[in-house]
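Record pair follows.
FIRST:
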Amino acid sequence: MTRAPLDGDIGRVLGGRYRLVAPIGRGASARVYLADDVTLRRRVAVKVLHDGLAEDDAFLRRFRAEAQIAASLNNPHVLGVYDWGHDDVPYLVTEYLGGGSLRGMLDAGERLTPSQALLTGLEAARGLDYAHGRDLIHRDIKPANLLYDESGRLRIADFGLARAIAEAGLTDQDGSMVGTARYAAPEQARGERVGPAADVYALALAINEAVTGEVPFVGDTAIATLMARADTPFEPDPELGPMQGVLRRCGALDPEARPSAGELAASLMASATDLARPTPLPLIGPAPGVASGTDSTQHGTVHGVSPLASVQDSSVTSDEPAVRWPWAIVGVIALIAAVVGGFMAWDSNQPIMHEVPDVAGQTRAQATEALGEIGLVPDFRDTREPGSSAGEVLETDPAAGAEVAEGDPIIVFVSLGEPLVGIPDVDGLPTVDAVDRLEEQGLTLGTIHEEAHEEILAGYVIEALVPTGVIELEPGAPVDLRVSTGPAMRAVPGIPESLDPGDAEIVLTDARLAPNRSREFSDDVAEGLVIRFEPSAGAFVDAGTNVSIVISDGPAPRAIPAVIGLDVDEATAILSDAGFAVSGVQGDPSLPVLATDPPAGELHLPGISVVIATQLTGN
C-alpha cells in the first residue's frame, strides 16, 4: 500500500493541543512529527499510529495500557512519554530529542569507536535495567530505538509500543508482522516466551553493529536470519576489544546464561578502564524530510522501506519486522489441516471463550484464583491511584464482562497505594520553614541530624536525607534532615615563624577568627614583632572569635637605681643588673659614690650610659 505523504498532516492539531509542525520519520506502525504543545509552549515529538490501527479495539485497549505504563517510567535513559490520546487515530506524545538515532548515524556512514559504543551500550543497559526492574520488557531494541539528545545522552524509545502491536495481533499495512528480525534473540526465533534477556541480546548486536557496521546472522530473508540465529551463539567482532567477553555472554543461546542489564552495565564499566576516553558522538540530528533507507519511527533519519518487501528481498539491509517463523509453520500446518479435515476439524480447534470476571477490590491472590478458575492468566501491573489501598486490584484490561479466549493473558492493575508525592527543596531553609514545607507536600519530619557546617548558619537545613535519585515518596513518609549547628570550634593557630603582625593576621583570618592588635613592652621580643596571641595558640574557640595579636614595644623604661654611698664596684654591679652601663667615674674610684648622671630615680630605656661621681682626692 502506498502511504500518504508525511507532510499531509502538517498544521493539524491533535487533542486540541499538539500542532504538527514538521515530519521527522515514518516506520512500520507510525508517522512521527515535530509538534508544538500549545498549552505548555514546548517542542514535543508526536507519534501518530497508522490509520488501520484506529479501528482495532483490542489494540486500542492495549495501547492505552502500555502508554500509561510507559508514561510512568522516569529514567534519564528512557524516552519520556508526556501524553497519549485518540483523535481519529491513536497518538503518543514524547519528549523531542535533537541528536538523532544510532540508526541514523550508521545509515550516514558513521561508525562508533569502541569507547563511544561502550558509552552507548552502558547508557542503554542502565535504561533497560531500570525498566526490567519494573517488569517491563522492550521487545524491539535496535539502533532506530536508541536516540540521543543534543549533548549525546542516550534514551531508549518505544517502551510498550512493540508489545501493544504484537499482543494485539496486528500487522503492518503491507501485511507483515511488526518487530525486528535482525535483532531478535534465539528464543524469539524459536517462538518461545520473551523475557528481559532478549533485550540484552538485541543490545549486544546493536553495540557490535555500531562499531563494525555489521549484524551477525543476517540471511537473505528474515526467516533465514531467524533460523541461523536459533542455534548459533553470537560471537562479537574482535574490534570490540575488552567488551568481547561480556558481549559473548549476552549472545548465549540460553537466556538464563546471559547477564542481566544491570550486570551488563557493570561489566561495561569495568571494560572502560582499558579503553581511551570517548570522543563526542557523530550526531546527525533529525532529518528534514522523508528519505529512503531503513525503518525508523523515531527522531533521526527518516525511512520508508516496506517491511514485507524487506522480508522478500534478496538481502536484508534494514531493521525489517520480525517474522515469527515457528508460528508461520504452525499456520501452514493449520491451513492444511483445515483443508483436509474440513469445517468440523477447524471448528474443533476454536478457543473456548470466557467472560472476564469483575475482580476489582480483590487482592492479587483472590484475582489469580478467580481468573484461573476459568483458564485466564493474570498479567499483574503495578500502578497508583488516589483513594486506593496498596495491594487492591483496581481494574482489568480487557474490562470485566468482555469475552476473551481461554489462556489469554489479562492485564490486572494492582494499586501500590496513593500516588507518590514529590520531595520539596528545603536546602538552606530555617528548620521551622523546612518542616512546614514538608507537611504542605504531605510528608512528615523524620530525624534531625545536627552537624557543624562552615557556610550554613546554625538552625538552617543543610539538606534533606533521601536516597540518591529518589524524587518522590509515599504520602506521609518521614524525611530526615541534616541541620547546621554553625561552624565548628577551631584551635587558635600557632604564631607565624616570622613574628610579623601582618603574617599573624593572615593566619588568624584563614582560620575564620577575628584578629585585633594590642601592644606591650617586652625585654625579650624586639619592638614591632609578635609576642603572643590571646587566647593563646592551641585554645579552642568559636569561629569569628576575637583573637588579640600582642605586639612588642621593646623593653619598658626603668628608674636609675640609687647607689649613693656605695663603693664604685658595688654601684657598677647594681647599675649593670638594672640594664644600664657605667661609662666612667669622676673622682677617686676608691671613695664612696656621691652622685650619678643621670640621677637616681629618672626613667630611662635600658642600655643608656651612666657616669658615677665620687669625692675628688685631697678634698
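SECOND:
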Amino acid sequence: MIQKSSNINNYNFKNVYFRLIAILLPFFFLVLMEVILRFFSYGTDMHLFVKHNHEKYKDYYMVNPFVGEKYFNNFEATTGTNDIFLKKKPENGFRIFLMGSSTLYGFPYPRNLMASRILQERLQDAYPKKDIEVINTSITAINSITLKDYIKQIIDYDPDAVLIYAGHNEFYGAFGVGSNETMSKNQFLRTLHFSFSNFRIYQLMKSFINGILQQFKKSDSTDGKGTLMKRIVKDKDISYKSEKYRLGIEQFQNNLSDILKESKNSGVPVFLSDLVSNIKDLHPFGNTVGETHSAEKKYQQATNSLSRGDTLAAKDLFYQAKDLDPVRFRASEELNRIIYEMAEQNEAYLITVKERFENASKGGLIGNNLLSEHVHPNIEGEFLLADAFYTKIVESGLIGNSPNLLTVKTKDYYRSNWNYTTLDSLIGEYKVKQLKSYWPFTLLDNEITFRDTFKTSGFVDSLAFTVLSTPDIVIDSLHKFLGDFYADNNQLDLACKEYEALVRINPYRSDYYNRAANCLLKLNDLYKAEKYLKKSVKYIETHFAHSMLGEIEFIKRDYHSSINAYESALELIDKDNVNKEIRKDILIKLYKLYQLTKNSENLNNIKDELSKSGQEFDFPIQSYKFDYSKYIPYDIEPIFQKALYYHNSDIDSSLYYLSVCLKTNDCPLVNYFIGNILYEKHDKRVLFFYNKAYNGYHQNPGFLVRLCIANILNKKKSQAKDILDKLIKVDPSYQDVARLKVLIDKITIKRN
C-alpha cells in the first residue's frame, strides 16, 4: 500500500510538473521571440523619452522622435520637437515639461517659432543662475488620451512643473470619439494597448494584422488624399450636446482629472491653460439645420451685430456659432469651463491665454490678427502665447522670488529680435494656404490645391515651397543652405540670420552656434558671439568654439580667460588631429599671452615647440590698449554712430539714440555709454547700466573706477569693496586706488 501511494504521489507530481511546463512553454517562446526581435533591432522603442542616439550627447535624454507610432496605426505618425534634457538634473535646475498638440508644436512654422523656444530663452534670461530646461513633448493630432499616457512617464523624470495646453483635438485626435485613428473605445483595452506597445512581438503582430487589413480595405478615392486634418475625421458632424459630443466632453474631463490627480499626488505643480479659437474671421466649418442650433445663422447674426458696432453682442454670438459648429476642430467653451473648474479643484496654476488674446484683439474678438486659421497662433500669437506662459510661471515663484533685473528683458524685445527669417514666414504662409485647400476649409470633393496652382517667383520663395512639394525635406537644411550661400557671397548679416534661425530650430547643435558666432564676430557683435559660443561648448566642445572664445577674451583683455580658452582649443586640436597650421596659429597666440602674463615656463615650452617646427618669430611684448568699444555690433551701428555724434553737443539726443539701440541689442557697449552719460550727470541710475556693461569692461581700469564710485554714491559698501579688489587685481598701481579706499571707508550704511 505504501509503495502504491508513493507511485500515485510521483504520478501527481509529474503530472503537475508537465502541466506547468505546458503552461510556461508558450511564455518561454514569447520571451525568446522578444529577445530575438530586439537583438535584430526590430521595431521601435515606444517610451516617451529615450537615451540620446549620439555618443557626444550621452548625458542627455531626448523626446522620442518615434513615440507617435504608439498612437497612430492608420495614419503616418507625427514626429516630435527633438528636445533634450540632462539625465541628471542640475542642482540649480528648473525642469518644466509642456504637453499638448499642434498649437504647442508651433504649426505652421518651423520649430524656431514654437512658444516653448521663446519661453525657454525668456526664463533663462530672467533667471541666469538657474539651468532652465523646457521640454516640449507635443506632437500633432493627439488629445487627452495620449497626454494621460504621457503623464506617468513625465513624472519619472523629476519635473519641477508641467504645463498643459490641450483640448482642440479631443474629438478628432488619435483615439477620439470622431476619429478614424482608433482601435477601441474601451478604456481598458486602450490602456492594455499602450502597455503592450513597447514589446517588439506586439509590434510585429500589429504590423502583420494591419498588413492583412490593408489588403481587404475598400478603396476610397479620397482616403489617401488631403491633409491629416481631413483624413483623420470619421464623424464629420458631431452636433452640439449630442451623444458623441457628450462622450468627447466626458473623455476630456476624466482624462484631465486623472492627469491633474497624478501630478498632485506626485507633488508636481501644473500650469493649465485655457484655449483660444478664431471666432471672428472663420465661418463655421459645418452647419446643423434648425433656427436655434444653426452655427451659420449665429455667425451671420454676429457679423450683423459687429457691423452695427455692438461688439458685446457680436462676441457672444461668435462664440455660440463656434460651439454650434458640428465639425469640431475648435474646442467648445464647455472645455474651457472644465479647465477652469479642474484648475481650481486641483490647485493648478490657471493660465488665461484666452483673456490675453482677447485683450490684444479689437473688441475682444479673436481672429486673423493672432491666429493663422482656426486655432494655431500666427507669429504675433506665438509671442503672446509664450508671454502668457512666462508671466504665470514667474508669478508662481516656483523658479525664484523675482527675475534678475540686469538680464530680464521685455516681451517686445524678443518679438523684435527673435531669430526667424523670411524663409520661416513663407513656410508658415504656404502651409496654411495648403491646409485651406482641403476640407473642412473647402468642399469635401475639392481637388485643386494651393500646391497645384502656385508659381514661385524668387530664390527664397522657391526654397520655402519645397516644404510642400517635398514633404520629407528637413527645414534645417534649407536654412543652412541659405546661410552658406549668403556667407559665400559675403552677405554676412543675412548669413547670420539664417544661422541664428538654426540655433532656435535646434538649440542643441554646437555647429549651429559656431556658425552664427563666427558671423557675429566678423560683424563686431562680441557679446552675442560669446553667448553663443558658451552655449556651443555646453553641448559639444570644439577647438573652433574655444579658439573664438579665446579671441573674444583677448579683446576684452581678460588674458587668463583667453589662455584657458586657447589651451582648451589646443587640447582638442591634438585630440582630433586637426590641421597643423591651425595648431601653430593657436601656439603663437598662446606665446603672446604667456608674454603678457609673464608665464616664463609655458613661454619657453611653446618657444621650443615653435622652433622645432621651423617657425621664425620675434614677438616683442606689446602694450595693448583696451579697445572693446571699437567693436560696434552691425545691427545697431548706424544708430550708435548718431548717439556718438550728439554726445558732445546734445547729451539728451545721444541718450535717446542709445536707448533705441538697447531695443535691438542689449549689449555691454550700449549700456556702458549710457552709464557714462548718467555718470557725468551724477544720476544714481548709472549703477544699473554699469552693472549690465560689466561683462565687456571688467578688465578696463577706468571703467572699474567709475563703477566703484557709482557703488559709493549708492551707499553699496560691500559691492564697492569688491570692485576695488578687482581694480587692484587688474592694475595694482592705478592712481585712484588710495582715494577709493578712503571714500569706501567713509560710507555709512543706514540700519533699520
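COMMENT: The beta strands are 49-51, 60-63, 84-86, 93-100, 131-136, 161-165, 270-273, 349-351.
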